[in-house]
């Protein structure tokens, strides 16, 4: 089946009324959770995962994917209008987006964010269609050493780009690996670190950890502060950017798309990092870097394009290698498995309808988001006007229900509360939780690959450097680890917090 | 002691505990790694990176970086109220049931953090509990606990 036939098959599947409906439901839900601070795509996807049990795998994947890229669109609205990121990937949009709104330019900021997201999202899907199938074919040659090196590189990239000292990010990754080891050892079927708690026999659940670290701790920090929100009150006009705005934004959108796509492909990359890197790049190459943070449209266009491009890129390792690039993809991996489909090198061959249907549905989803988002901005603003003292109990309730309903387990709810406290402490002591989450997801796969590789080489770690692909991946990881130690380059590490 | 020295020490102790805990399981050999192999490596990594952190933060301490209060100037009691209310919710959910516990939970938070008018508290808590019951239990079939009242 050539590329054109495959794409046509995909459109046939995606255009079926039922799939269009689930695509719409996904992007609408995604936009809503993106708009609402404290409820990210992971929480929304885990809440809605049980509802997909009664629909076809194609529809399920289409809807869950829609939530993910829909949230990227929605997150910018809150950043621009309230200065609170609706979603982690929109943190950086606050810097210039909110300043633009304060200067009476909320319309162009929201407009360029939507158009940039649309362009980047669409181009990244084209990239996904072209890259995933050949990569899947190549992945058939991957063995345990290559998989292990790939995951090590992913974790290193994330820690390299994390804010603050690198030792803190590496510490988080190491702790995440430990959490990933808890529960049953897949190779010997014996249990580790379960403390006689039944729920831990399958390991520490991703949902309680993520909801605790990102949802509960965020609310705890917010209620410590004064909860008076400065909601944008003026009428939002001129959503269509002017020629001058387009001229300033086109370069950042293109660069953001390329950066976001390739960072999204890397395990450990993803939307959050892409948006920060894009902002750092735009600031560095700008003729007026000092003006960044004061309402530059480039500071909105680049990161928003990057975080949407990253969503397309993030599907590549999952669909072609079976490796989730981030926590959202890990949930999607769970959804695939629940529906009896194993993502990986054989997916394109064994389930072409699912692969091409899901990919082409993203075109539809992006068009829906563009059509939906601009006219619905008024509605999102009204939702945002709900005062935070009334909104935060609802966010907590969503987290509680989402966590409980996954396995009907109170222990998991308690685990979520515990991770809420841990996340609160992390933020107080300036530790970033993202490396922990990725390491938790990759941990079991890394352990299997490491042990299989060591079995293959009779215990020699040289195997990771003997095979060309593995050597390149491992070499890159080592370079990123050593790079900050070189005094000349120490200041050049693109820390996300800057 | 500064903040990173304290957190680094906690991490180091945790790393040691992980390493020692891993020894209960078989570590195996590099040629045939056992069940405890990977947790041991991760514990070792935690010790190693927290050790680097401790050295780094001690050097900064010598340059004059002291303790930065983490709870000063914020309403930290609000955060603790949230934490306790979540714990109580988790403990009461099964015996009292979803609707009753949720109504109490929402009402408590609306009064305890930034006190709302009683009319707002009663309306919001009942509406939220009813709406979430309809969405999650009736529509999404989430199987929430029934408790005393059977709902």
How would you describe the overall organization of this protein?
The complex is a heterodimer of chains A (498) and B (151). Chain A is mostly helical and 498 residues long. Chain A is 71% helix and 1% strand. A two-stranded antiparallel sheet of chain A has the order 1-2. Chain A is globular and about 65 Å long. In chain A, 63% of the residues are buried. With 151 residues, chain B is mostly helical. Chain B is built from five helices and two strands, in the order αββαααα. A two-stranded antiparallel ribbon of chain B has the order 1-2. In chain B, a hairpin with a 2-residue loop joins β1 and β2 (32-33). In chain B, α1 packs antiparallel against α2 (37-62). The longest helix of chain B has 26 residues, at 37-62. In chain B, 34% of the residues are buried. The model of chain B has no long low-confidence stretch (mean pLDDT 92). Chains A and B meet through α8, α9, α17, α18 and α19 of A and α1, β2, α2, α3 and α4 of B.
List its salient traits.
heterodimer; A: 498 residues; mainly alpha; two-stranded antiparallel ribbon; 71% helix; 1% strand; globular; B: 151 residues; 5 helices; 69% helix
Supply the helix-strand structural class of chain B: mainly alpha
| Strand elements of chain A, count | 2
- Residues in helices of chain B, as a percent range: 55-70%
Radius of gyration of chain A: 22 Å
Radius of gyration of chain B: 24 Å
End-to-end distance of chain B: 53 Å
Main pleated-sheet profile of chain B: 2 strands, antiparallel
The strand order across the widest sheet of chain B is 1-2
Shape of chain A: globular
Strand order of the largest sheet of chain A: 1-2
N-to-C order of helices and strands of chain B? HEEHHHH
- Quaternary organisation: heterodimer
Low confidence ranges of chain B: none
**Structural class by secondary-structure content of chain A:** mainly alpha
Mean pLDDT of chain A: 84
Low-confidence stretches of chain A: none
**Individual helix count of chain B:** 5
């Amino acid at each position: 089946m050539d590329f054109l036939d495959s794409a046509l098959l995909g459109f046939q599947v995606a255009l079926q009324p039922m799939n269009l409906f689930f695509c719409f439901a996904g992007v609408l839900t995604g936009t809503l959770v993106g708009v609402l601070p404290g409820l990210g795509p992971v929480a929304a996807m885990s809440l809605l995962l049980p509802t997909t049990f009664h629909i076809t795998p194609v529809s399920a994947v289409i809807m869950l994917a829609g939530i993910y890229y829909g949230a990227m669109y929605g997150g910018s609205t809150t950043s621009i209008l309230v200065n609170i990121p609706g979603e982690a990937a929109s943190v950086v949009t606050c810097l210039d987006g909110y300043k633009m709104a304060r200067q009476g330019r909320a319309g162009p900021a929201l407009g360029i964010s939507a158009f940039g997201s649309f362009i980047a999202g669409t181009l990244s899907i084209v990239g996904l269609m072209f890259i995933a199938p050949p990569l899947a074919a190549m992945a058939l040659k991957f063995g345990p050493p290559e998989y292990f090196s790939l995951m090590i590189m992913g974790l290193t990239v994330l820690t390299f780009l994390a804010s603050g000292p690198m030792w803190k990010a590496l510490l988080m990754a190491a702790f995440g690996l430990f959490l990933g080891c808890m529960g049953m050892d897949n190779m010997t079927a014996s249990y580790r670190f379960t403390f006689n708690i039944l729920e831990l026999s399958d390991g520490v659940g991703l949902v309680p950890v993520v909801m605790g670290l990102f949802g509960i701790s965020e609310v705890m920090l917010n209620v410590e502060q004064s909860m008076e929100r400065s909601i944008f009150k003026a009428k939002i006009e001129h959503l269509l950017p002017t020629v001058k705005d387009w001229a300033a934004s086109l370069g950042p959108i293109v660069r953001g798309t390329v950066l976001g796509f390739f960072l999204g492909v890397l395990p450990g990359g993803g939307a959050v990092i892409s948006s920060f890197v894009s902002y750092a790049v735009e600031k560095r190459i700008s003729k007026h870097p000092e003006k960044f943070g004061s309402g530059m449209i480039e500071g909105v266009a680049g990161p928003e394009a990057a975080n949407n491009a990253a969503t397309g890129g993030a599907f590549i390792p999952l669909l072609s290698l079976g490796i989730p690039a981030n926590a959202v993809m890990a949930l999607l991996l769970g959804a695939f498995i629940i529906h009896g489909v194993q993502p990986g090198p054989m997916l394109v061959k064994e389930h072409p309808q699912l692969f091409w249907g899901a990919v082409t549905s993203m075109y539809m989803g992006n068009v829906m988001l563009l059509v939906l988002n601009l006219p619905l901005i008024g509605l999102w603003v009204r939702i945002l006007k709900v005062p935070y003292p009334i909104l935060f109990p609802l966010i907590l309730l969503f987290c509680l229900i989402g966590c409980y309903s996954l396995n009907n387990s109170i222990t998991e709810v308690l685990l979520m509360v515990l991770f809420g406290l841990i996340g609160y402490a992390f933020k107080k002591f300036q530790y970033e939780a993202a490396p922990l989450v990725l390491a938790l997801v990759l941990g079991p796969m890394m352990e299997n690959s490491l042990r299989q590789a060591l079995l293959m080489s009779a215990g020699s770690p040289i195997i990771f450097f003997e095979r060309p692909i593995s050597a390149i991946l491992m070499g890159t990881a080592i370079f990123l680890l050593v790079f900050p130690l070189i005094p000349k380059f120490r200041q050049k590490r693109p820390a996300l917090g800057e | 002691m500064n903040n990173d020295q304290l957190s680094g020490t906690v991490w180091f102790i945790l790393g040691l505990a992980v390493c020692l805990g891993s020894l209960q399981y078989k570590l195996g050999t590099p040629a045939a790694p056992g069940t405890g192999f990977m947790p041991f490596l991760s514990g070792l990594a935690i010790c190693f990176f927290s050790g680097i952190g401790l050295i780094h933060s001690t050097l900064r301490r010598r340059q004059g970086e002291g303790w930065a209060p983490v709870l000063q100037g914020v309403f930290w009691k609000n955060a603790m109220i949230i934490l306790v209310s979540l714990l109580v919710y988790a403990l009461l959910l099964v015996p009292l049931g979803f609707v009753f516990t949720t109504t109490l939970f929402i009402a408590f938070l609306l009064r305890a953090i930034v006190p709302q008018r009683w009319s707002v508290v009663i309306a919001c808590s009942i509406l939220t509990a009813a709406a979430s019951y309809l969405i999650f239990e009736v529509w999404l079939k989430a199987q929430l606990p029934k408790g005393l009242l059977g709902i």
